[in-house]
Amino acid sequence: MQNAFANMNIPHFLRWILLQFALVGAMLPLYIPMFIWSGNILAKTGYRKIDLLWLFVPVAGTIVFTRTQWRYCSKTCYWETTAPVAPVAAPVAA
Predict the structure, then answer these.
(1) How far, in Å, CA of 55 to CA of 68, rounded?
(2) What is the pLDDT of residues 14-39, one digit of tens each?
């Protein structure tokens, strides 16, 4: 029978570290395009691309993210192009 503390050693920690590196490596192809796309969304909604760094600040990041997503969604969902309205002629005084 194994000792209860047999797994609490350096090789166990190294396996955990390698697993973390493997998971990060597997997720990088997803994170990098999302990071670039988020910068483009910021640029299209009136922010600068460098404002992407605000997303890492807890309260300010939430505010920037919410405002940006609201603007981006309203740009693509709510705004519709309409035909220009013909000007109304002013009434002529008789």
Answers:
(1) 11
(2) 888 888 899 888 888 888 888 888 88
Cβ count near 77 (within 10 Å)? 8
DSSP letters along 50-88, please? GGGGGGGSHHHHHHHHHHHHHHHHIIIII----PPPPPP
Please give the model's pTM, rounded to 2 decimal places.
0.48
Helix (H, G, I), strand (E, B) or coil at 42: helix
Tokens, residue 29: 């192809």
**Tens-place pLDDT, residues 42-90:** 887 777 888 888 888 888 888 888 888 787 777 655 545 555 556 666 6
Give the residue among 45, 61, 44, 63 at the shortest CA–CA distance from 53. Answer: 61
Tokens linked to 74: 């309203």
Sorted by where each begins, the domain ranges of the chain are 29-75
